[in-house]
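Entry for the shared binder. Reason: the reviewer on the internal report wants the predicted structure included alongside the sequence.
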Amino acid sequence: MQNNHVETITTELNLKNSQIQAVANLLSEGGTVPFIARYRKEATGSLDETQITAIRDRLNQLAELDSRRDTILNSLEKHGHLTDELKEKVLTADNMSELEDIYLPYKPKRRTKGTVAREKGLEPLALLILGQQMDDPEKVAQEFIDEEKGVTTTEQALEGARHIIAEIVNEDEAVRSSLRDLFRKKAVIISKVIEGKEVQGAKYKDYFDWQEPVSNVPSHRLLAMRRGEKEDILNLSILPDEQEAVNIIENLFLKNSGAATGQVKMAVQDSYKRLLSRSMETELRINTKEQADQEAITVFAENLRELLLASPLGAKRVLGIDPGFRTGCKVVCLDRQGKLLHNTTIYPHSSDAQSQKAVQSVQELSQKHAIEAIAIGNGTAGRETETFIRNIGLDSKIHILLVNESGASIYSASEAAREEFPDHDLTVRGAVSIGRRLMDPLAELVKIDPKSIGVGQYQHDVDQAALKNSLDDVVVSCVNAVGVDVNRASAQLLTYVSGLGPQLARNIVTYRDENGPFENREKLKKIPRLGPKAFEQAAGFLRIPNGGNLLDASAVHPESYRVVYKMAEDKNSTIADLIGNADLRKQIEIKNYVTDTIGLPTLMDIMDELTKPGRDPRKSFEAFAFAGHVSDIKDLEPGMQLPAIVTNVTRFGAFVDVGVHQDGLVHISELADHYVTDPSKVIKVNQKVNVTVLEVDLSRKRISLSMRTGQKPAKTGKTDKNRQQQSQQQSQRPQAPKKSQPKHKGKVKEPFHNPLAEALKKLRNLG
């Protein structure tokens, strides 16, 4: 790493030189972001994961710039263009655009109009005209007529000279820099529908005739227009005022008003229209796409973090249900460790006889396996199945909960699911995933490609490599923040532990299966291929509850055990005493335990761990239920106030589930009583909220909602135009099949014939 990189990042991130250097060194030694943030605070000055990640990413960017710089220098030297002055310019270029501008005049070119003109010997004429000292360009051009080279007229000679001048203008650093600034500040994006594509591209109707400054366009709108262009529905252009652009070039190249200047002016106009405008537009498209991608990826990452860190129900005996109408509901029983005990299929939404059998089956399974909670997938037939379960007279202590099943089908068809359940079909695996997701969302969701979870905006349109890297960072951060029980974790979960990876994760599971549970962290060193470096990186995040050493269940790293032992020794106590006695901990003067390698930040973390070893940073679980009288979009009416849960946060608002198999949109203008610029600042995925129905569009399956206090429903057809534009994404979300049901206001809707429920009603009436 070059020293100037440290200086560059120090200035950009406003951090100390020593902090950047420390992070760079630790990363080069194989340190992971979670490990450095948690266990190397003394070296980094207590930088957090976000700062360390920013340093890592910037180091990688600068390394890419260095690599491109070396390639350019080698090319310049190979073709005999390299001079001391040119080398200095290449070495001091601090961004890719500047570097490419320097290289452009010397870059090996394909055959162009300018190169053809040079082959005809017209370059001297072009340079004479560009000097703008001649009085009669046509007279001078006559000297360059050469029929053997294909120059038969004066106009052909002048045209060839203008082509050469146009390329000189195109390759000028000052011109490109000035135009780049103009495009960035004043270019306008214009979207037009391709003639004849109006019906096919109806979902892009808002962009059939649209324009706005590219400097102001939100990322989601840019990505939407680019998707329409990719699907051959829209034509896009991103250009500033043409005359303003040409004026900039003319100010740099025109020297007077003579005849030669007229030729240069023609070349300048040709250069802009044929070369520069296209080049600058392409570059701006790339830059704005990168910016939009980054914003969309940031949104996805923020949402994914909230989803992964959702509150776990914990180790409970769970009955998981993957609901369905015609094909029935797949039911599984799981023990407190998530192990599959039993599976069956019930048909609560079929005939009376099948419904009665389903009641009996669920009741018997709940008693036999001492079920403590029932997890029901929220997809097709989810609300109907929930109503059925709530009406069959189960013990009131059993939690009945709808679970977001996004991605469960992806997991059920995955290699990991086939390995775990080779003798069961997709429906059983899906039901298991739903049940486990209630117990521990993080442990289950890491088995699914994050893109399949559905908490982003335009995630399939952004740079897929950048998206994967960002989402992987989030998963790694969440897994290590929570910690992993090494004796229970799946190979998929272990893969994301600092210092491990797929192979070591599989080795851990294999060793555990062959030798039994790990008794302490030292036993981890016996795992094949898990060397000292991997142990250092992983040990603090791998927990062993109920092991021989209480510290093995905590986030205290083994390298710091001796300090804790010394604390206990100095107080004539045990580790258990330190953990269980707050008064004893208060007597410890942690400054007395500072060493060359362990400072106050680490000692403070140790004391926190002794207060609550292995604490889970996730919030406590809270049950949630939708409104009982609403289960279909047809049940919704403007003015209704409903409980809801946030499923996705975007830059234009939030999608929320009100329990009707179709998410509604709370536009950014309806998120709060005050002005909101960033929805993620006021609302999070999985947050429980109360909403007011503003408008329901049954034909397009769109639901407009508000979280503002005292909100009145909008009149049909009068919804804010911007809200309609931004809610386009809602209509593109996959729709679950609906079963038409009558409305039931003011009571729990029973969308099926339930003999047991009717019998209970009769008994209550008799009573």
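Summary line for the report: Residues 294 and 488 are 36 Å apart (CA to CA).
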